[in-house]
Write a structure and sequence with these properties.
This protein is of the alpha/beta class. It has 4 helices and 6 strands. Strands 1-6-5-2-3-4 form a 6-stranded mixed β-sheet, with helices on both faces.
Length: about 160
């Protein structure tokens, strides 16, 4: 399946499947999951990166265990809107993952997601050690929530949609 727009997430069957959000770092992958209604993103866990094959195997196991049917992958766009080497790496990850599992995959601009999450954790007086443990999965939830909100804004309203 090719890359999708966030609005395409609203085309998934109601009540299933869940959507997984990923914050793809060089050392870790932060994971978040949506509820089955695809309204709320919740931090799930952080995986240590090994190599693509091992990382993909862990992700596929979670896909199957949690009933995931779509993925939102944070795209680390530069502040000026350009795409650097990290974007190329993320796009390669997406391409390689899609070769293993044919699912809707959305690339979501993740600019400032980690900074926003870190600021929230600092305001909550979270210790440095605890911040290090949760920042990646919380950034994944921030990314996923942005895509879910965008999909909801673009979804047809069932009350106003034409009926056959």
């Amino acid at each position: 399946m090719p890359l999708c727009a966030p609005a395409d997430l609203s085309l998934l069957p109601p009540g299933q499947p869940r959507v997984m959000g990923l914050d793809l770092g060089t050392k870790t992958i932060g994971l978040a999951l949506s509820d089955v209604g695809r309204i709320v993103a919740t931090p799930y866990q952080t995986l240590k990166r090994v190599k693509f094959g091992a990382d993909a195997a862990q992700l596929l196991a979670i896909f199957d265990k949690e009933g995931v049917g779509a993925m939102v992958l944070g795209l680390p766009v530069e502040m000026d809107g350009s795409e650097g080497p990290r974007c190329q790496s993320t796009r390669a990850f997406a391409r390689n993952f899609l070769a293993l599992r044919d699912v809707p995959l959305v690339l979501w601009d993740e600019r400032l997601s980690t900074a926003a999450v870190t600021r929230t954790l600092l305001e909550a007086d979270t210790s440095r050690r605890r911040r290090a443990q949760v920042v990646d999965k919380m950034a994944a939830a921030y990314i996923l929530q942005g895509a879910l909100d965008a999909a909801a804004r673009r979804a047809p309203d069932p009350d106003t949609a034409e009926r056959p």
